[in-house]
Design goal:
Blueprint (H helix, E strand, L loop, with lengths): L1 H24 L7 H20 L2 H4 L13
């Protein structure tokens, strides 16, 4: 019974620790201009990759204006 109580106490303390850690971090976004520019560039690159490597582009479709990686 002592082992079970110790195990439950460990699980509860880990849950509390993780909850406090996540609440302290919050969902704050980048505050400076450099970080915002990096996020924007990353978002644009991801969009281009989704367009270029999507199913339509991979299946031998004719190249379109949206292709960023012409072959």
């Amino acid at each position: 019974m002592v082992t079970l109580s110790a195990f439950l106490a460990l699980i509860v303390s880990a849950t509390i620790f993780l909850t406090v850690t996540l609440l302290r971090r919050g969902s704050s976004r980048t505050q400076n201009a450099d970080g915002l520019l990096i996020e924007q560039e990353s978002r644009v690159r991801a969009h281009g990759d989704r367009v270029s490597f999507g199913t339509f582009a991979v299946r031998n479709a004719p190249p379109t204006v949206a292709d960023h990686y012409p072959s």
